[in-house]
Design brief:
Elements lengths: L9 H34 L3 H17 L1 H11 L1 H18 L6 H17 L3 H11 L4 H30 L1 H22 L28 H12 L3 H19 L1 H11 L4 H26 L4 H22 L6 H13 L4 H11 L5 H30 L3 H17 L17
Helix pairs in contact: 1-2, 1-5, 1-6, 1-7, 1-8, 1-11, 2-5, 2-16, 3-4, 3-6, 3-9, 3-16, 4-5, 4-8, 6-7, 6-16, 7-8, 7-12, 7-15, 10-11, 10-15, 10-16, 10-17, 11-12, 12-14, 12-15, 13-14, 13-15, 13-17, 15-16
């Protein structure tokens, strides 16, 4: 039990530290979109070459996730997150020495990708699952919104730094922020309520802590994939989240600023618009978390993907030379929908193989999200080089979102929990 002297349940402290760490991680992840044009101008590399490094970063951000979730179960959250922050600092700091595209691929693609992937949304899912019983959907929404908040906080400043002091300043800022987050995690992030003799927030007296997993991390991750692959719901979630990553992280998150630059908009203005998307993303994600506790998650996902597809169909027609009302309508509309898909997706992942493996299932579903993002990050760059603009990339993404909207309706409804008979 929580002592009466505790005005704030420690679960909220764990959630707060997680929010700050995820916010910083989002800033690290979004930095490459600021670097595309400066690297293009500094080295003469093609946008497709630079996009390949960004695509690898996005891909690893997802592929590492299920293993990171299993490592957190096996070795603890703090160790994994501190190691991830150290990797980001190393990869980002060493980027100032690059002279060839393969070095950018190695450092931003591989090293930073593995580091940020180990702090992906499976981190949020793990903390929410361990520390909360009540308000879990809302907390998941809050932690998911950290990505948008990081985008809001970091992007305009990084874009300004790139223009004022050169692209290397962006790498050094990211490295310094990653190192500064390490002691915060070490001092304030609790592993689990059971280690403190507490119950999760909202748990009843009948709650008992789940036994720690004795399965090696790789075996747990791969075994979950093998078992999940036998469940149709798993594949519906994988395919829909693949489209989610393609249409957000890969396309808009990576190429919004370069696309706006192609139409004459300055990078700081474009970065501010992308950050403004983050403001509305926070509101949309928090609302989605609240709704996930109350409404069928499949219906929520149908609405989110459908609205996103419609907004992407309109984007090429209103992009980008000036900030006019239609541009702002897209920013508001798309921002509210950016990662609103995450809370209901996490909720449905808990139904695939049971709550105890919901986080690892979500790790694999999130890997599909990042595979889609990697494909769009690289593919949109190739399409831009071939056709001279991004119009086709946005149109393909819009159509896939509309398909995903109907795909999620095929997920079976969650099975009702059996009633517990009263004891005489």
């Amino acid at each position: 039990m929580v002592p009466r002297s505790h005005r704030i349940h420690p679960a909220w402290i764990a959630a707060g530290v997680t929010f700050l760490t995820l916010m910083a991680s989002a800033g690290f992840r979004s930095a490459p979109t600021v670097l595309i044009v400066p690297l293009e101008e500094a080295f003469g590399w093609s946008r497709a070459q630079i996009s390949f490094a960004v695509g690898l970063n996005v891909l690893l951000y997802g592929l590492v996730s299920p293993f990171a979730a299993a490592l957190m179960e096996r070795f603890g959250i703090r160790r994994v997150v501190m190691a991830a922050l150290s990797l980001v600092a190393l990869g980002s700091g060493a980027t100032v020495l690059i002279q060839a595209p393969w070095q950018l691929v190695l450092l931003w693609g591989l090293v930073v990708g593995v580091g940020t992937g180990s702090m992906a949304l499976v981190f949020a899912a793990t903390v929410a699952s361990r520390w909360f019983v009540a308000r879990r959907g809302l907390v998941t929404g809050i932690l998911t919104a950290a990505a948008a908040t990081g985008q809001l906080v970091f992007l305009p400043g990084l874009a300004h730094a790139a223009m004022a002091w050169g692209w290397k300043s962006v790498s050094l800022i990211v490295a310094a922020c990653a190192l500064a987050a390490v002691p915060l995690v070490f001092l304030f992030l609790g592993e689990s309520p059971a280690r403190r003799g507490l119950r999760p927030y909202g748990a009843t007296e009948a709650w008992t802590p789940p036994p720690p997993s004795s399965i090696p991390a790789a075996r747990l991750a791969l075994g979950t994939l093998r078992e999940g692959a036998r469940v149709p719901s798993f594949w519906y979630l994988v395919l829909s989240f693949f489209v989610c990553g393609l249409s957000t992280t890969g396309l808009v998150g990576t190429h919004f600023i370069p696309a706006a630059h192609d139409h004459g908009m300055s990078e700081p203005v474009a970065a501010s618009l992308l950050a403004l998307i983050g403001i509305f993303d926070v509101a949309g994600t928090l609302t989605s978390g609240w709704l996930t506790d109350r409404i069928d998650s499949r219906k929520l996902l149908f609405a989110y993907y459908g609205l996103r597809g419609l907004s992407l169909l309109l984007l090429p027609a209103i992009l980008f030379s000036t900030v006019h009302p239609s541009t702002l309508v897209f920013v508001i509309f798309y921002g509210l929908d950016w990662v609103a898909t995450v809370p209901p997706t996490i909720h449905l992942c808990r139904e695939v193989l049971g709550p105890e493996r919901g986080t690892v299932v979500y790790g694999w579903v999130f890997a599909a999200h990042q595979i889609g993002g990697a494909l769009a990050a690289y593919g949109a760059g190739v399409l831009r080089v071939h056709f001279g603009d991004y119009a086709l990339a946005f149109q393909v993404s819009a159509v896939l979102c509309l398909i995903a909207a109907f795909l999620v309706l095929r997920i079976p409804a969650p099975r009702p929990k059996p009633a517990i008979p009263a004891v005489a």
